């Protein structure tokens, strides 16, 4: 008997129909710089006018094991926002303006409803970031993933004038460190969070949805996308360094963008006190939490003391530290 691809677990017609169903959503993110629609072998994006020596900036990331909770609880739209955020928040740390995004979704069996929910989140993330979703890949891979499992990867590209690249080299002693508050865990540390929930709290992931909706809401809150805020700040002040606080915490990420001749002193008491971290503190050592989580500081900038007066009324920014002479380290005080 002749075999078919569908019989082996891959439904091409269903896949094509699913893509058509999300086409309008995706096209809503396009601007005049996107030169073609969906369905081609590649995407074209015209470099915006006005740049003298443009540099293209790119980054890729995923959502990690936050997806496991999303799959178990059926909360799928927010992880699309997370995906965009993790990529865009990385590329803007050099001062780049994000331009466009691509996604990759791999699954054991494609569900039209679930796929639409995920893509709607990605579209929402692109709108929050002010970028275009120009393409993607959806791979139905039976045998590689369990039936309901899937994985996501994202790819973001942006642009910056070469002379304007921010790499931390302009940071100096006396500069001030500010944080933009996170929404919570963002998309890091979820292997530890799941371990605490299941082993220490004795709660299954299925129970979270039914019995602990407030806790679930805190855990699944999407990552904040900081691109528009940073673009706005860059029009007011000179930013000398920036860091997206992900796995490795404040210390692990900020040390990547400070010169070896300087230290940054972070005042623990100044960090935002988010409820999710108060809960996790009952089960995880404080030092371990600072190694793993953002601890309320989702994004960090370093600026000159002279620029502080220009942002003193900005309620989104929290002063958390100071730059000192040192050895390229971050210390908590």
From TrEMBL:
Gene3D superfamilies linked to this entry: PurM-like C-terminal domain, PurM-like, N-terminal domain
The entry's keywords: ATP-binding, Cytoplasm, Ligase, Nucleotide-binding, Purine biosynthesis
Residue intervals of the PurM-like C-terminal domain: 172-329
Organism domain of life: Bacteria
Molecular function terms from GO: ATP binding; phosphoribosylamine-glycine ligase activity; phosphoribosylformylglycinamidine cyclo-ligase activity
Main location: cytoplasm
Domain PurM-like N-terminal, chain residue ranges per copy: 55-160
GO CC terms in record: cytosol
Pathway: Purine metabolism; IMP biosynthesis via de novo pathway; 5-amino-1-(5-phospho-D-ribosyl)imidazole from N(2)-formyl-N(1)-(5-phospho-D-ribosyl)glycinamide: step 2/2
InterPro entries noted in UniProt: PurM-like_C_dom, PurM-like_C_sf, PurM-like_N, PurM-like_N_sf, PurM_cligase
Cell compartments where the protein resides: Cytoplasm
Name of the top EC class for this enzyme: ligase
EC number: 6.3.3.1
Catalyzed reactions: 2-formamido-N(1)-(5-O-phospho-beta-D-ribosyl)acetamidine + ATP = 5-amino-1-(5-phospho-beta-D-ribosyl)imidazole + ADP + phosphate + H(+)
A GO BP entry: 'de novo' IMP biosynthetic process
Family label: Belongs to the AIR synthase family.
NCBIfam families linked to this entry: purM
Protein name as annotated: Phosphoribosylformylglycinamidine cyclo-ligase
Species per Swiss-Prot/TrEMBL record: Muiribacterium halophilum
